[in-house]
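Attaching the record inline, Q. Sequence:
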Amino acid sequence: MAFFELADFDNHEQVTFFTDEQTGLKSIVAIHDTTLGPAVGGCRMWNYASDDEAITDVLRLSRGMTYKNAVAGLAMGGGKSVIIGDARRDKTPALFRSFGRAIHSLGGRYYSAEDVGINTQDIMYAHEETPYMAGLEGKSGDPSPFTALGTFLGIKAAVKHQLGKDSLQGIRVAIQGLGHVGYHLCKHLHQAGATLIVTDLNQQALAKVAEEFNAVIVDLDAIYHQDVDVYAPCALGATVNDQTITQLKASIIAGCANNQLALPRHGDVLRDKGILYAPDYVINAGGIINVSFENDYCAKKSTEKVEQIYTTLLNIFKQADSQNVQTATVADQLARSIIDAKKATRE
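Structure, as predicted:
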């Protein structure tokens, strides 16, 4: 494998591989860009089918964090980490302490936090070995509710732009993935009067959402062709691809998953089909916004900044229409302009 020629390698500043035979740690940390500050981004624990799949994921996720932090107006660069393993079977305190030591060896260039398969207790174990952890208990804590809030507001912005409605009453939303963020998103949507159609591998999560929010449960593959207004991908990425796009009946894609588009060209395909896409790293920035208040935490200030996602997305939607380009292109342009302006001040 020619690493520097990988499609998802985007002039990353540093990519480091960590192993620890004693604890079973196999981890990759990707620091994409530190122009705006130290790289910050969560750690994902996943049972990847191959090392190549893990590398692709961490490269894409870290680039997304650079753009996410830039558009959100945070003094943070972009980075991400993955731990290869089954989060349901392979977790131990020793594993995360080993991960903490690995992060500490980077000297503060990268701060980690929770992501898929990781919880705040895991992060606290890692924190025993390093100060370079975020989303800590007693400080900003679990970022999931804030990610969900931002996603909910992003859905409202998309419905406003695409359907001309200020209310979500009666809006039908298909939600794929009912983890921490997905559950809180369902709660917001239910309280706003939306009708929910949901799917997940976790049967307990499905039963809970069905009981509490009157959600309709469908099979995993059936989620794509539901007759809904909004498809909200809230699990892993690349669920918007050549196979699924042909099935979609939704006129809006707005969810909290990272890297929702399998390929950049799928944004153009969606636009050609009249489907509005809320760029993932813009709509799901609530969690990292909350983390940004870690050192002097104030839930009120955090919430106020998360609420800005609504206006940011409306502006992106309008600009995409005026330029006749996909929304992801506008978001990328915005992120790069912020980063380039910061670089210019250093020259």
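The mean pLDDT is 95. The radius of gyration is 19 Å.

More tomorrow.
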